[in-house]
Design a protein that fits this description.
Blueprint (H helix, E strand, L loop, with lengths): L7 H11 L2 H17 L9 E11 L2 E8 L2 E8 L8 E15 L4 E10 L48 H6 L1 H4 L3 E15 L2 E7 L12 E5 L8 E13 L5 E12 L2
Parallel strand pairs: 3-5, 8-10
Antiparallel strand pairs: 1-2, 1-4, 2-3, 4-5, 6-7, 6-9, 7-8, 9-10
Length: about 260
């Protein structure tokens, strides 16, 4: 509510305008944008905020938390919670572009975790055995997006490949230094001490998931950049907290050419 002194009729009109659906939608979109722009929480970290909304789905619950970095969604084991209380989610795992078939909605970012700190004894239901955090509707590494990138000119030089070729020939290229050229379609900075880049070059199959390459690097990039990266190809890399990649180009150097 604005505190500017105005004639009574105008003050009432402004109050009504502030509570209009358009104003509420704009505020909600701004909160979401702030949360998406905030740095991602590293796997295994904690998320704390004030509970503003909860949506029970079977043995777990989606919670919308108001944090210092804006509103964030999380999914945790279903326990009694009260709107307005402070909630801490432990051992979080970020899922981006997560689709909930039960709710028929998608979340740009959502953290899966537990309400008990690591090492705490799990709560026991009355007359039953301890329950572990149930598996979410979708587990593991998020599926690659399809940015519909047109065919990009391949890198040149020794061990230059397209992304589709890397997927097709991965067993023979494991541990080899590879060079790839493509467009950055997704970028997460400073997660587990490195920057995470998803590249596509128009090769491979989006239906089979062979169109996207995950790259780790200390170099920075931005979505939309066309870059050439050189790194070591690793297979079946498990980074913990549910982050498992069948194919990743690690310790990569990046150039914009």
């Amino acid at each position: 509510m604005r505190r500017t002194i105005l004639p009574g009729v105008l003050l009432v009109a402004m109050a009504c305008a502030d509570k209009s659906p358009d104003a509420a939608n704009a505020a909600a979109k701004a909160a979401v944008a702030n949360a998406e722009a905030a740095p991602a929480i590293a796997p295994g970290g904690t998320l704390t905020g004030t509970l503003r909304e909860q949506i029970p789905v079977g043995p777990y619950v989606y919670v919308r938390l108001e944090t210092a970095d804006g509103e964030r969604w999380a999914a945790v084991n279903n326990e009694p919670l009260t709107v307005g209380q402070r909630v801490t989610v432990y051992n979080v795992m970020l899922m981006e572009h997560f689709q909930s078939p039960t709710l028929n909605r998608s979340f740009a970012r959502i953290y899966f975790g537990a309400l008990e700190p690591p090492g705490a004894a799990p709560q026991q239901p009355a007359g039953g055995a301890p329950q572990a955090m149930p598996a979410p509707e979708q587990v593991g590494t998020p599926a690659a997006i399809n940015a519909k990138v047109g065919r990009i000119a391949m890198a040149t030089g020794a061990n230059a490949h397209t992304i589709g070729d890397l997927h097709a020939q991965q067993k023979g290229l494991a541990g080899v230094t590879i060079t790839v050229r493509g467009v950055v379609v997704k970028y997460n900075e400073s997660v587990m001490g490195k920057n995470w880049i998803h590249m596509q070059d128009g090769s491979g199959s989006a239906a089979k998931g062979t169109h996207d390459l995950t790259v780790t690097s200390l170099d920075r990039a931005a979505v939309g950049d066309t870059v050439t990266v050189t790194g070591t190809l690793r297979l079946d890399r498990d980074f913990g907290a549910g982050y498992v990649y069948p194919l990743v180009l690690e310790d990569s150097k990046l150039s914009r050419k």
